[in-house]
Amino acid sequence: RREVLSKNVSGAVPDNPVGEARTESGLRQSMSPLGMIAIEKELDAGFLLLIKHPAAFTALLKDLVRFFPCYAIIRNPLSVLASWSSVAMPVERGHAPAAEGLDAELRQALACLPDKRDRQLRLLSWFYEQYQRYLPANRILRYEDLVGTGGSSLQAITPYALALREPLESRNINPLYDAELLRSLGEKILATRGAYWSFYTKESVERLCR
Question: Could you tell me the CA-to-CA distances from 126 to 58, 95, 177, 193, 198 in Å, in that order?
Fold first, then answer.
């Protein structure tokens, strides 16, 4: 029917589903309700369809890779934690319902941790563990490389991206993130042994704390 179900704003997919408006607790809230959007672009029979659902697809990755080309875009772990801690969403409490509903081991591991920061760190490590286990290195793309190349690093997904030169700006250091909380999260993550260290150095996290 030339329609797809997606988070959207006025019928268009936003670059970020979470706005700058904050709740009484100081957390940013989603401005993108889920709904049907029309596909107005003309498509030929061989068009490329990309679908994003980080929590569910990461939980199902072991099986999905048998049927579909799967990719992960990863980001500096401290920036991910800072983002999670700024939004009125389950990840702020250290939970990912879609993933936990599909991965009983993850659900049990998070349930055993009373502190939300510890749950966030365990959840974050789980994402990186899944990518390290089930994806080849050339299908794991860094957000920082995507920004630095103007999008052309997406050529790993489609050769058409090779010509991209978009004016992208890193949001790893974001004024929407509380600076004091960023330093506190940095100290906490630097003391851990999560799977994210297989992709990022501790120096890269320390630079964001300065």
Answer: 9, 12, 23, 12, 12
